[in-house]
Specification:
This protein is α+β, with helices and mostly antiparallel strands. The protein is built from 9 helices and 9 strands. The chain has one domain. It starts with a helix and ends with a helix. This is M15 family metallopeptidase.
Length: 281
């Protein structure tokens, strides 16, 4: 009985301490707002969007959030995304904050004049950019606001990997981060389950050529175009169903773990990847 009382008292003390910490901790900031006329004008002036872009400013939202930097400080950042995916993106970055996942920077591309290589060189996490695919002529999925690049230095874009013609962007990543093991803070491998859980079911780190460790996108070009063509509310509901289908697939398995911040059990990466492959459109 004495041990039980002591145990209960210990738990109560721990909860009290936790609540006290939360009471004095600063509240995490997160917000979603439509891209304003002023921001759209800045995006046009800085070569981030043109009239030819497949998605107009009226279908884009700015998601603002707090994040932890590589020194452990809390900072504020934002990304621009397709309005249909904005609530899930807000939740995604909220989860990264809870996990203390470090980000070096998170600024929209107008801060870099729409230059993806400048953004990568600054190790900037970003989303929308009205540009073609790297090394290709078709629109990038970033031009739809349906892709996110995270910590480019820790997660470089690599072409012709392992050959004498190998190229790495950003160049300062060098061989250090082309070598993926052991995992270091800010690398995408630890975050795949988080991105999948919020509907970004494609990771460029799984590609063969190029390998794009920083890149996550929601699915096929056809599915992205479908979302962009729907009214905002309908597109958001369709994307939420997409997320729910993936989560339902993962949670069918009684031993499945998705890598939640408060879950110490190992993530079932095979189940996770199989569900992403099956559920993505």
């Amino acid at each position: 009985m004495i041990q039980l009382i002591a145990s209960s008292f210990g738990r109560a003390t721990a909860w009290a301490a936790a609540l006290a910490i939360l009471a004095f901790a600063p509240a995490a900031h997160a917000d979603i707002v439509p891209v304003s006329a002023a921001q759209c004008a800045a995006m046009k002036a800085r070569h981030v969007i043109t009239p030819a872009n497949p998605v107009p400013c009226s279908r884009l939202s700015t998601v603002s959030f707090d994040y932890t930097d590589f020194d452990g400080a809390t900072r504020s950042g934002s990304v621009v995304v397709l309005d249909a995916v904005a609530p899930q993106v807000e939740s995604l970055f909220g989860e990264l904050l809870l996990r203390s996942t470090p980000l070096a920077s998170a600024m929209p591309l107008e801060n870099f004049d729409g230059d993806d290589e400048k953004s990568m060189a600054a190790n900037n996490t970003s989303a929308f950019n009205g540009r073609p695919m790297t090394g290709g002529g078709a629109w990038s999925k970033h031009a739809y606001g349906a892709a996110i690049d995270i910590n480019p230095l820790q997660n470089p874009y690599v072409t012709k990997a392992g050959s004498p013609q190998q190229q790495v962007l950003p160049s300062q990543a060098g061989a250090d981060y082309v070598q993926r093991m052991p995992l270091r803070p800010g690398q995408a491998e630890d975050l795949v389950g988080v991105f999948y859980d919020h509907g970004f079911l494609v990771w460029g780190g799984n590609w063969k050529e190029p390998i794009d460790y920083q890149h996550f996108e929601i699915g096929s070009r056809e599915f992205i175009r479908k979302l962009a063509s729907m009214p905002r509310a309908q597109a958001r509901a369709e994307f939420e169903r997409y997320v729910a289908r993936y989560r339902g697939c993962v949670r069918q398995h009684p031993q499945a773990h998705t890598g939640d911040a408060d879950d110490d059990a190992p993530e079932d990466t095979v189940l996770r990847d199989n569900c992403a492959t099956r559920m993505r459109k």
